[in-house]
Structure formats: C-alpha cells, structure tokens
C-alpha cells in the first residue's frame, strides 16, 4: 500500500486507518530519514487509539510508553546486542502492547511475521510518500 501525504491532515487520516486494524501484540517498524514524519505519525496513531498522552521522540531515552503502546527509537544503538540488552526481545513478545519502533533496521532479524513495516520518504517540503508493507 502506498499513500501520498500532502499534509499532516493526510498523515492523521492514515494513522486513523491503521489504528482501526491494529491489535495488541502487533509491531510497527517505521523507516525514514530524520524529519520524514515518523514521530508525527506516532502522535496521530496514539491519538487515534484513544490514548491521551503527549508523544515525544524517544531518541534520547530510547523507550516511552503511552497506555498500551511501546514507542522505541533505536537511532543511537550500534548493535543488535545493545538492543537485546535493553530487553527488545521481551518487548516484541509482549502481547499486551502495540510496539512502534523508529530506526528498526538493526533488529529486523527479531521481527515476527506480524510486523508492519512503514517507510516515510520526503517528496517535497510538505509531501511524504508513505509505503506500508504487511498490512492486511
């Protein structure tokens, strides 16, 4: 599935569509360069799931929780061993949470077949091409 987002409103609508199909135990792997809209998408997704929390990038703390959402940012990690030491395997297995991971490339070997991969790509100043894989 490929979506062209020309505004944050478009991104919010996409997040709402995805939220309707998510189940606890699902993992979302978010790819894209800095500033491509990953954290904005997470903010709208959390809102669409009915959770009232201020969503912030977890770049410096690595892991934030919002209700039944685990939000991780692995940008600063250098190896899968570092991720494992943080308990990533337990987080990915937790069926009581939806897990959202920004910069997930490092741990792709740990993904289940229920992982939904979403790529955010700059097209223009306010435009993003958002490609979603494994979203049924």
TrEMBL record:
InterPro entries xrefs: P-loop_NTPase (IPR027417), T6A_TsaE (IPR003442)
GO annotations of cellular component type: cytoplasm
Main localization of the protein described in the UniProt heading: cytoplasm
Gene3D superfamilies: P-loop containing nucleotide triphosphate hydrolases
Biological process terms in GO annotation: tRNA threonylcarbamoyladenosine modification
One Gene Ontology term of the molecular function aspect: metal ion binding
Keywords: ATP-binding, Cytoplasm, Magnesium, Metal-binding, Nucleotide-binding, Transferase, tRNA processing
Domain of life: Bacteria
Subcellular location field: Cytoplasm
Family membership noted in the UniProt record: Belongs to the TsaE family.
Name the UniProt record assigns to this protein: tRNA threonylcarbamoyladenosine biosynthesis protein TsaE
Organism: candidate division WWE3 bacterium RIFCSPLOWO2_12_FULL_36_10
